[in-house]
């Protein structure tokens, strides 16, 4: 029996940060396995390299900062590495992946003061850094070469094993109207691991919603922010603008909606703020995809909205119980 | 009877109830303790003057200490016995601060010292009723411990129309109110009737959480004949017992931040307080005992006990079979808002409704980590605040920033800490910040007073100096005048002599 002076509550719900992180990782597993099935060993290598280098960098950074090195296994570094791998082309050279992972952890996270203090989503920061520094490697999309079932059992073709490769264009960079939303949803097309099967990503997202790891505001707001302008412009001029379905089910829209934009550290905490942030992400993805130079806008959109999170959190606060509801809170300057 | 919609207010949590440990345990009487320890300093710091001295015989129910104002609640002896000592003794304050304490050695005799004949409260006026409640030493038994008579008097002055009786008992483990409502429903209802009359209210609503069906039934039955008392069922949601949240759940009205519920014409009292009021008015009996739930994984036989005020915690533990090996922390009150008990010799006071011995699995003490900004605390906060921001500002001693994010509206209910995945001791940060702000405020007040006094002194000295100067000048002028007169006289005399 101890008689130390501590303040209440003297019990706890049992939730923990690691639990949250590992549940997110778990939610990514189906889409990841499907990605490996589609793209072969090179995809698996990208995943393993990204996670391993993220963990090693995390340990080194914790060591340098004199922080508790046990928290290397808290799941946050693993998740960052995993998300980066999900957003890279499956054929990315290993040294590019290592560089990306190390950048995500060292610059994207620890330079800001470690877990919880970073302004930008580390995985997306690394993704964008790599895209700008290594444009050739980062746009080397391979065609899907799934495992097939032959006469004598499973057939692993030379593409799957990574001995040979066949390049292809991603739906958004090419003529996407050729693919039906259903085909896009199932993921039988070129892209990064996390961009192929929207259906499996959605499955993971629903799991996170069910486990209450994330709430539905940001995903809903993001998908609406993307779909509404797409729908309107497609209605006006179908030849020039892709349909809302194509926008939703291709590229990283679902990955961004459920896994990237919902990153707790870099998104607002109040539901008012989350609506603004989510819609902002969605609209920006649409604008960058449609009018920008880059085919894939999710990473840029999320980073831009990350930058607004502190100001959103400052001005868009929940209404104090009993006080007159106001949209803006006049905070201390 | 009416069931309200599922979520009557934003935020709130559903902590594990653990009420099954004691909800079937009938209230038992604790054997008279050998010694009773009555602290002569209240939680708010008010001092009481003992009316007895060492060696005096005191009877059960005898007034033994009282204070200067109505905010100082009179103390009555809960036993027959002898005052053996008046000395500093450990109190229920978490710091274990020692306060002047009256120690009474009890005798075997358990009868009331006076023969309290039943009286007809209908013959009492409203003011007389309130005075009797004050004299009986009744405080809010829900936990706040505010003098009930003072609350009732304020309500009467402000013309309160609704008396809301709090039977929520939203804290996990505690079942003392639940058992009280079941076993003494008629006394509770009678007390409510008397309180309604004392403040001149139109009606009384008794709010009970839907996880206490037997209490709801017992109260509804007891109140079925009385027109202006109705039982309202509210959903089980922590912190339903908070005054503001209970009012919202039952009436749909919200109390503005910084205002009291009486502004809406509503007064909130606890069920156990209602019963104490009944005893005080019907039998003129003072508050000398209360029901306490003794529970938790560290208790061998959890029970609901009637405990004389001033009983040491160790007596309660003994009556419940003692502590288990796994007991880790002693808590007075519920696990959410209760405070640690500094020693097993701490006496219980009027505002302690629960004694919990929690084991390791219940306390779930864990290392705290960096804030993820996950926002779970924001969703859980029943006051609509942003706890993680308040904590971040408090941590770096930016108390103004913490207040900007709503520190002053915080209930310290602990919902945020309960859900925090990083185990950040949010409530601790808030209590600390509040303490610092209070200290700063009293320092500011002190220095303002000192400045005022210095200014006054300087003004007085100036005034005195000016007066002295004026006097001096006046004297000088008078002297001059006299001299001039003398001269004139002399000159006149000379002139007369010269003639």
Topology of this protein?
The complex is a heterodimer of chains A (333) and B (499).
Chain A (H helix, E strand, L loop, with lengths): L16 H23 L1 H25 L10 H12 L6 H13 L15 H12 L14 E3 L2 E3 L25 H6 L6 H4 L1 H13 L6 H20 L7 H6 L3 H8 L10 H21 L6 H18 L18
Antiparallel strand pairs in A: 1-2
Chain B lengths: L27 E2 L5 E5 L9 E2 L6 E2 L4 E4 L8 E2 L4 E10 L7 E9 L19 H10 L12 H10 L4 E6 L8 H8 L1 H15 L3 E7 L3 H10 L6 E6 L8 H9 L14 E5 H13 L5 E7 L7 E6 L4 H7 L7 E6 L6 E2 L13 E6 H4 L12 H5 L6 H9 L3 H6 L10 H5 L6 H73 L1
Parallel strand pairs in B: 1-14, 9-10, 9-12, 10-11, 13-17
Antiparallel strand pairs in B: 2-8, 3-5, 4-7, 5-6, 7-8, 13-14, 15-16, 15-17
Cofactor (chain B): [4Fe-4S] cluster
Pfam families (chain B): Complex1_51K (PF01512), Fer4_7 (PF12838), RnfC_N (PF13375), SLBB (PF10531)
Organism (chain B): Reinekea marinisedimentorum
Cα Rg of chain A:
21 Å
Mean pLDDT of chain B: 90
Task: Give the strand line-up of the largest sheet of chain B.
Answer: 1-14-13-17-15-16
Shape label of chain B: globular
Distance between the termini of chain A: 47 Å
GO cellular component, one term (chain B): plasma membrane
Cofactor (chain B): [4Fe-4S] cluster
EC number (chain B): 7.-.-.-
Subcellular location (chain B): Cell inner membrane
Question: How would you sum up this structure, described in words?
Answer:
- The complex is a heterodimer of chains A (333) and B (499).
- With 333 residues, chain A is mainly alpha-helical.
- Chain A folds into two domains: 17-138, no CATH class; 177-315, no CATH class.
- Chain A has helices spanning 17-39, 41-65, 76-87, 94-106, 122-133, 181-186, 193-196, 198-210, 217-236, 244-249, 253-260, 271-291, 298-315; strands at residues 148-150, 153-155.
- A two-stranded antiparallel ribbon of chain A has the order 1-2.
- The longest helix of chain A is centred in the first third of the chain and has 25 residues, at 41-65.
- The radius of gyration of chain A is 21 Å and the shape is globular.
- The N and C termini of chain A lie far apart (47 Å).
- With 499 residues, chain B is an alpha/beta fold.
- Chain B folds into three domains: 2-292, 3-Layer(aba) Sandwich (Rossmann fold), CATH 3.40.50; 293-363, Ubiquitin-like (UB roll) (Roll); 369-499, Fumarate Reductase Iron-sulfur Protein, Chain B, domain 2 (Orthogonal Bundle).
- Helix content of chain B is 37%, strand content 17%.
- Chain B is built from 14 helices and 17 strands.
- Chain B has helices at 126-135, 148-157, 176-183, 185-199, 213-222, 243-251, 271-283, 313-319, 360-363, 376-380, 387-395, 399-404, 415-419, 426-498; strands at 28-29, 35-39, 49-50, 57-58, 63-66, 75-76, 81-90, 98-106, 162-167, 203-209, 229-234, 266-270, 289-295, 303-308, 327-332, 339-340, 354-359.
- In chain B, α1 packs antiparallel against α2.
- At the A-B interface, α1 of A face α6, β15, β16, α10 and α12 of B.
């Amino acid at each position: 029996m101890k008689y130390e002076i501590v303040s209440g509550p003297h019990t706890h719900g049992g939730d923990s940060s690691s639990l949250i992180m590992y549940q997110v990782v778990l939610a990514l597993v189906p889409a990841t396995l499907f990605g490996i099935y589609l793209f072969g060993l090179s995809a698996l290598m990208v995943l393993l390299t990204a996670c391993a280098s993220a963990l090693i960098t995390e340990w080194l950074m914790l060591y340098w900062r004199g922080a508790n090195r046990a928290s290397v296994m808290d799941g946050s570094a693993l998740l960052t590495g995993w998300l980066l791998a999900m957003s890279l082309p499956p054929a990315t050279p290993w040294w590019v992946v290592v560089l990306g992972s190390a950048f995500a952890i060292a610059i994207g996270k620890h330079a800001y003061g470690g877990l919880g203090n970073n302004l930008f989503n580390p995985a997306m920061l690394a993704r964008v850094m790599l895209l700008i520094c290594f444009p050739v490697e980062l746009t080397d999309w391979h065609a899907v070469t799934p495992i097939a079932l032959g006469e004598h059992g499973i057939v692993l073709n030379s593409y799957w094993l990574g001995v040979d490769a066949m390049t292809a264009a991603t739906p958004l960079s090419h003529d996407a109207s050729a693919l039906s939303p259903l085909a896009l949803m199932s993921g039988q097309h070129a892209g990064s691991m996390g961009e192929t099967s929207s259906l499996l990503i959605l499955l993971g997202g629903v799991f996170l919603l069910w486990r209450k790891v994330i709430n539905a505001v940001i995903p809903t707001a993001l998908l609406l922010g993307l779909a509404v302008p797409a729908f309107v412009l497609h209605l006006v001029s179908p030849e020039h603008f892709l349909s809302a379905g194509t926008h939703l089910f291709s590229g990283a829209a679902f990955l961004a909606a459920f896994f990237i934009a919902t990153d707790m550290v870099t998104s607002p905490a109040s539901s008012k703020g989350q609506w603004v942030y989510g819609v902002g992400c969605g609209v920006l993805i649409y604008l960058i995809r449609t009018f920008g130079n880059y085919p894939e806008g999710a990473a840029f959109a999320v980073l831009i909205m990350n930058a607004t999170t502190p100001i959103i959190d400052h001005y868009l606060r929940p209404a104090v119980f009993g006080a007159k509801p106001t949209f803006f809170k006049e905070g201390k300057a | 009877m009416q069931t309200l919609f599922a979520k009557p207010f934003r935020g709130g949590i559903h902590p594990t109830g653990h009420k099954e440990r004691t909800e079937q345990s009938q209230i038992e009487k604790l054997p008279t303790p050998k010694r009773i320890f009555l602290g002569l300093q209240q939680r708010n710091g008010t001092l009481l003057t003992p009316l007895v001295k060492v060696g005096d015989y005191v009877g059960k129910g005898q007034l033994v200490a009282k204070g200067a104002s109505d905010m100082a609640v009179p103390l009555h002896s809960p036993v027959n016995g002898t005052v053996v000592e008046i000395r500093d003794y450990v109190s229920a304050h978490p710091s274990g601060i020692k306060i002047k304490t009256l120690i009474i050695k009890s005798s075997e005799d358990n009868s009331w010292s006076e023969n309290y004949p039943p009286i007809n409260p209908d013959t009492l006026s409203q003011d007389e009723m309130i005075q009797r409640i004050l004299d009986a030493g009744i405080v809010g038994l829900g936990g706040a411990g505010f003098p009930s008579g003072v609350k009732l008097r304020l309500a009467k002055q402000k013309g309160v129309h609704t008396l809301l009786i709090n039977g929520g008992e939203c804290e996990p483990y505690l079942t003392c109110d639940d058992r009280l409502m079941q076993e003494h429903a008629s006394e509770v209802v009678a007390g409510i009737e008397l309180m309604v009359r004392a403040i001149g209210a139109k009606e009384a609503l008794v709010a009970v959480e839907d996880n206490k069906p037997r209490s709801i039934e017992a109260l509804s039955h007891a109140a079925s004949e009385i027109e202006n008392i109705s039982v309202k069922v509210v959903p089980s949601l922590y912190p339903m017992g908070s005054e503001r949240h209970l009012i919202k759940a039952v009436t749909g009205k919200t109390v503005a931040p910084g205002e009291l519920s009486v502004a809406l014409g509503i007064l909130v009292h606890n069920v156990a307080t209602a019963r104490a009021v009944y005893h005080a008015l019907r039998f003129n009996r003072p508050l000398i005992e209360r029901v306490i739930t003794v529970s938790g994984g560290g208790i061998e036989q959890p029970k609901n006990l009637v405990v004389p005020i001033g009983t040491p915690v160790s007596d309660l533990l003994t009556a419940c079979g003692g502590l288990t090996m796994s007991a880790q922390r002693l808590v007075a009150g519920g696990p959410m808002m209760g405070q640690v008990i500094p020693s097993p010799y701490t006496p219980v006071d009027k505002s302690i409704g629960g004694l919990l011995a929690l084991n390791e699995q219940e306390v779930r003490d864990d290392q705290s980590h960096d804030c993820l900004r996950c926002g779970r605390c924001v969703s859980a906060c029943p006051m609509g605040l942003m706890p993680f921001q308040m904590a971040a500002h408090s941590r770096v001693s930016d108390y103004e920033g913490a207040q900007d994010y709503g520190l002053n509206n915080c209930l310290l209910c602990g919902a945020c800490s309960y859900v925090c995945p990083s185990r950040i001791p949010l409530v601790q940060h808030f209590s600390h910040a509040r303490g610092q702000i209070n200290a700063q405020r009293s320092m500011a007040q002190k220095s303002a007073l000192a400045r005022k006094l210095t200014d006054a002194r300087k003004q007085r000295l100036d005034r005195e100096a000016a007066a002295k100067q004026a006097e001096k000048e006046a004297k000088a002028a008078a002297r001059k005048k006299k001299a001039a007169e003398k001269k004139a006289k002399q000159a006149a005399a000379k002139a007369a002599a010269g003639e």
